[in-house]
């Protein structure tokens, strides 16, 4: 990635810090992996499935045994894409699977994700006004699950 740095910017770190999830409930992020047939594969992540431990280290919690999870285990790589703060952000990640939590309330495949490169893009001729936005159907229940998932991602 040209003009990329190996760390999240302060606004991305704040976005992924695991705090104030109710304020971030409408944000969704694209997670790109590669299939065994070398095709791009896209999934979505919410603010309740990712936490930044530092500007260079994230943790991700994905549903078990999905195509995305299998791709991440197989390749050890993914790209996280966020549209936030009038910026398109492309974050290349080097992944390692964390041990399963036998007593997890919300079982997930957990990953440690080292930021390899982070590039932010702003158009000179236009403003980025939104990215993927979601509306939770059961916000109280989902936000509670996200809070619990974030706590589980913090466990070693």
What does this structure look like?
By secondary structure, the chain is α+β, with helices and mostly antiparallel strands. Helices cover 19% and strands 37% of the residues. The protein is built from three helices and seven strands. The chain has helices at 10-15, 67-75, 139-153, and strands spanning 28-34, 40-46, 50-54, 57-62, 77-84, 87-97, 109-121. A seven-stranded antiparallel beta sheet has the order 2-1-5-6-7-4-3. The chain is globular and about 50 Å long. The termini are far apart. The model has no long low-confidence stretch (mean pLDDT 96).
Strand content: 35-45%
Order of strands side by side in the largest beta sheet? 2-1-5-6-7-4-3
Q: Quick one: overall form? A: globular
Number of strands: 7
Q: Termini distance?
A: 31 Å
Overall pLDDT level = 96
Question: Helicity, in percent?
Answer: 10-25%
Low-pLDDT windows of residues: none
Largest sheet: 7 strands, antiparallel
Total DSSP helices: 3
Helix vs. strand class: alpha+beta
- The sequence of SSEs as H and E is HEEEEHEEEH
Rg, Cα atoms, Å: 15 Å
């Amino acid at each position: 990635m040209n003009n990329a740095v190996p760390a999240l910017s302060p606004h991305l770190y704040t976005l992924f810090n695991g705090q104030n999830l109710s304020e971030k409930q409408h944000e969704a992020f694209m997670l790109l992996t590669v299939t065994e047939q070398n095709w791009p594969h896209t999934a979505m992540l919410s603010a309740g499935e990712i936490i930044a431990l530092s500007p260079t280290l994230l943790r991700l919690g994905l549903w078990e045994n999905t195509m995305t999870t299998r791709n991440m285990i197989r390749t050890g790589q993914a790209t996280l894409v966020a549209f936030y703060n009038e910026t398109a952000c492309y974050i290349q990640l080097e992944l390692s699977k964390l041990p399963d939590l036998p007593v997890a309330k919300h079982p997930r495949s957990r990953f440690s994700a080292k930021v390899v490169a982070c590039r932010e893009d702003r158009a000179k001729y236009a403003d980025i006004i939104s990215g993927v936005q979601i509306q939770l159907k059961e916000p109280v229940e989902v936000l509670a699950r996200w809070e619990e998932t974030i706590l589980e991602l913090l466990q070693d």
